[in-house]
From TrEMBL:
<dbReference type="InterPro" id="IPR050853">
    <property type="entry name" value="WD_repeat_DNA-damage-binding"/>
</dbReference>
<comment type="similarity">
    <text>Belongs to the WD repeat DDB2/WDR76 family.</text>
</comment>
<keyword id="KW-0238">DNA-binding</keyword>
<dbReference type="InterPro" id="IPR015943">
    <property type="entry name" value="WD40/YVTN_repeat-like_dom_sf"/>
</dbReference>
<feature type="compositionally biased region" description="Basic residues">
    <location>
        <begin position="127"/>
        <end position="138"/>
    </location>
</feature>
<feature type="region of interest" description="Disordered">
    <location>
        <begin position="41"/>
        <end position="70"/>
    </location>
</feature>
<dbReference type="InterPro" id="IPR019775">
    <property type="entry name" value="WD40_repeat_CS"/>
</dbReference>
<feature type="compositionally biased region" description="Polar residues">
    <location>
        <begin position="1"/>
        <end position="12"/>
    </location>
</feature>
<protein>
    <recommendedName>
        <fullName>DNA damage-binding protein CMR1</fullName>
    </recommendedName>
</protein>
<feature type="repeat" description="WD">
    <location>
        <begin position="217"/>
        <end position="259"/>
    </location>
</feature>
<keyword id="KW-0227">DNA damage</keyword>
<dbReference type="InterPro" id="IPR001680">
    <property type="entry name" value="WD40_rpt"/>
</dbReference>
<feature type="region of interest" description="Disordered">
    <location>
        <begin position="1"/>
        <end position="21"/>
    </location>
</feature>
<dbReference type="Pfam" id="PF00400">
    <property type="entry name" value="WD40"/>
</dbReference>
<keyword id="KW-0853">WD repeat</keyword>
<feature type="region of interest" description="Disordered">
    <location>
        <begin position="124"/>
        <end position="144"/>
    </location>
</feature>
<keyword id="KW-0677">Repeat</keyword>
């Protein structure tokens, strides 16, 4: 009798498979007893493989062949530029580019601050009015008095940071300029930062409060390059900004008043103000320099409604003028420092062009690198400047002749993250041998003799100072020095 195919298939099954088939059969019988329809076959059920749904393809943005997607910062090595070549390129092609995001409305002044300045106005109204009067200066009480440099050194060694906090946060960003109010009763120091904030620190407030009192005002939308008090009205604080405006804080009007606007000046070719100075005998005459090498003399007495131009513009240099300063005793003599590697002395009474259509300077001093700053001493007999060739130079003159300058080796390579070093002379009220201060990359302040160029002393405090004090200023009537760094912090040496 022939074998059935089921028997052959059953004999070919393994023991495991036979038990499995038996379990399936019993399950089928159980389903029948429960009135469930059995499966069509006893073959094992396979779960069908589910196909993945077709995903929507990601649309790739078209390649931007014309755009160079480089990182924000890229080392000189990756760019294939030698370090020395980059520095030379920086000196010759450095241009200040400013992006003004929005216009700044006149900030509301704090009533307490207004009352504070108003109380100091009358007492100190004439303290700087005698800036150009040597006779009255001799009768004044001096802030520091020393007959020689040895006696001066003993006084300088007493300067310390005496406030409780190590440093005081005066502005949110890097400080570009700072100035003291001339008052002896209240020590007020102001500072302008990178983004147009004006900070005013009441140094005496620590005596009565746990924290120092600092007033903040958004005076400009861009960098405040210069802050200074009027030499005639100590309640009037001037500020010049890269946004092309010059403003002053007027306590009488209780607001910031616009004194100059480059956008409204048809004579100027640049909208970026770089430096500012004020005539010591007439604070209505404001002197401004810009990145195109122009000098702008703004007369605030002239009203625009009269149809006359409020400014005179002179093209004095080919590149940015990094510093201007009027001689304290002869305001018609102007000093300029420029990125065209020169420092010049000008007579504002003789501003005539030569045959090459250029203004003729009284004296011109060429350098190998850009001259970053220059200023007259308080007696108007000396000049100090800083240059990118890592030197400070002191010039002394008699009449119209200048002696060979004294050269002081000094690292002036502050880079792009620090404010440029500027020499600051001791004020006229300091009856001492002339001396000057300047910041140091080693996080201290250097004090040099104005006659010999000798390093007299350094103001240092490693426990408190953790950044370079690049910006410095003297109090005009007291033995006090203010220093500021790139993080908006300040300290006072007294």
């Amino acid at each position: 009798m022939p074998e059935s195919p089921n028997s052959n298939s059953a004999d070919s099954l393994t023991e495991y498979e036979r038990k499995r088939q038996e379990n399936i059969r019993r399950n089928q019988e159980l389903l029948l007893s429960l009135n469930f329809a059995p499966t069509a076959s006893l073959s094992p059920l396979r779960t069908p493989v589910q196909k993945r749904k077709a995903e929507t393809p990601i649309k790739k943005s078209p390649a931007k062949e014309s755009v160079n997607l480089e990182p924000t910062r890229k080392s000189l090595r990756l760019r294939g530029i030698p370090a020395k070549a980059a520095l030379l390129q920086l000196d010759e092609e450095k241009v200040e580019k400013v992006r003004v995001v929005e216009e700044v409305r006149d900030p509301a002044l704090d009533r307490e601050f207004i009352n504070l300045l108003a109380s100091l106005k009358e007492e100190n109204h004439s303290t700087r009015k005698t800036r150009s009067s040597p006779r009255s200066r001799a009768a004044k009480t001096t802030a520091i008095e020393a007959r020689d440099e040895q006696a001066l050194l003993s006084k300088l060694q007493n300067l310390r940071i005496r406030h409780q906090e190590a440093t005081i946060k005066v502005t949110p960003e890097r400080i570009y300029s700072t100035a003291f109010h001339p008052s002896k009763e209240k020590i007020l120091v102001c500072a302008g930062d990178k983004f147009g904030t004006l900070g005013i620190w009441d140094v005496n407030s620590e005596d009565s409060n746990e924290e120092s009192v600092v007033h903040h005002y958004k005076a400009h939308p861009s960098t405040i390059s210069t802050v200074m008090y009027s030499p005639l009205n100590n309640h009037r604080l001037y500020s010049a900004s890269y946004d092309g405006t010059v403003k002053y804080l007027d306590i009488n009007q209780e607001q910031f008043v616009e004194a100059y606007n480059a956008k409204m000046d048809d004579n100027s070719t640049s909208l970026i103000n770089n430096c500012m100075d004020i005539d010591p005998n007439n604070d209505q005459l404001v002197y401004i320099s810009n990145v195109n090498g122009e000098l702008i003399i703004c007369d605030m007495r002239v009203k625009k409604s009269e149809g006359e131009s409020t400014t005179n513009v002179y093209q004095l240099h080919d590149k940015k003028i990094g510093g201007i300063h009027l001689n304290p005793l002869r305001p018609d003599i102007l000093l300029t420092a420029s990125n065209d590697r020169s420092m010049c002395v000008w007579d504002l009474r003789l501003m005539k062009k030569n045959k090459d259509s250029e203004y003729q300077a009284l004296a011109r001093f060429d350098h190998t690198r850009a001259v970053t700053a220059a200023c007259w001493s308080s007696d108007g007999s000396r000049i100090a400047n800083t240059c990118f060739d890592d030197a400070i130079r002191i010039f002394q003159h008699e009449g119209d002749k200048f002696d060979k300058p004294i050269r002081i080796s000094h690292n002036n390579r502050t880079g792009r993250w620090l404010t440029l070093f500027r020499p600051v002379w001791s004020p006229v009220t300091y009856q001492t041998p002339p001396f000057l201060i300047v910041g140091n990359m080693n996080r201290w302040v250097d004090i040099y003799s104005g006659t010999s160029g000798k390093l007299l002393h350094t103001l240092s405090d490693p426990d408190r100072i953790t950044a370079v004090p690049a910006v410095n200023a003297f109090h005009p009537n007291m033995p006090i020095v203010a220093s500021a760094n790139g993080s908006g912090r300040m300290m006072v040496w007294s």
